[in-house]
Amino acid sequence: MEADFLSFEEARRLADLYGTPLLVVSRARIRENYERLRDSLPGVDLYYAVKANPYIDILKTIDELGGNFDVSSIGEFELVSSLGIETKRLLYTHPIKRAEEIRYLRERGIDTFVFDNRHELLKLKETAPDARLLLRISTNNPFCAVNLNYKFGAPPEESMALIEEARALGMSVVGLCFHVGSQSLNPYIYVDTILVCKKIYDLCALAGIKMEVLDIGGGFPVRYVEKVMPIGKFCEPIRNALKNYFPNTRIIAEPGRAICGDGVVLVTRVIGKSVRNNVQWYYIDDGLYNSFSGRVFDQANYRIVAGRTKGFSRCILAGPTCDSFDVISSDLVLPELEIGDILLVPCMGAYTNVSATEFNLLPKAKMISIN
User: Fold this and answer.
1) Which CATH number fits domain 2-23+262-370: 2.40.37.10, 3.40.50.280, 2.60.120.650, 3.40.50.150?
2) Entry pTM
3) Which residue numbers are catalytic?
4) What is the pLDDT of residue 371?
5) Are 354 and 319 in contact (CB under 8 A)?
């Protein structure tokens, strides 16, 4: 029995060696995911979204494949740079930045910045007047887990006014960018937004403004509990839209979850059990304040895989902290478990360890990489 790339036999061996909770990274799976997405979007420059998981071995694996990196903080910039990765392979995509942040990055070679409003444009004029700019536009996507457009993105109908104002300020808008939202299940949202961008590019051409780049963001889905469309099939309408409407434009994408999501399995141990109000409870050594933080911040629902096969019943799975909020799931069906049992949780690579805390002074899960 196994969970994705990790068997229970190997998980027990690693748990004995490193302890639990333990996040196991498969470098082979990271490579497979990167190469599969690259093949599904030929001609698109992939920039791995470091915020999804900045674990060093994931970054090194992508670097070995010749990948680029999407960073959105000075910390992420410095981490990637510390690996000897050239600044020209980095894209800084945060739409809202501190003035000193822009100056710091421009001095170190970042020459392209994202904005989505007039105030950010004026800030960039003061701090990086020679920068190349990407205007982020908003999208409407009811089929995503996390709606990033609630916080970022200019309405498309305001885009030309912002681009014209940038030109009047002597600044260069070289393209548009968008993000349809995290864990997007419908590829046609990308297609619709690509068509919106095409209309704006046509207006720019009429105004004598040359647009060179289109950044289609991330949001490519992975499987948690429910199955999702295979990435090759998912990307097919996106690929066709780019070919038809932007054949001579440089295209960028910012995948994060699609690269690292199913490249990590959590190994966790049952540390307690109880029957409360006639319901079986199991307590494990990882929870909402640690690797399962994605349940809170990322709206993710994870599969729980047990090594036992008998005595299935409905149960509640809770984390190790003293806080009653720390309940991972209230409606699971699991076999009868014993204290000390190992559980495996696939698809724990994106927005898990990166948003974990040390509440109760409980340490975060250790991370190791294999193959």
Assistant:
1) 2.40.37.10
2) 0.95
3) 322
4) 85
5) no
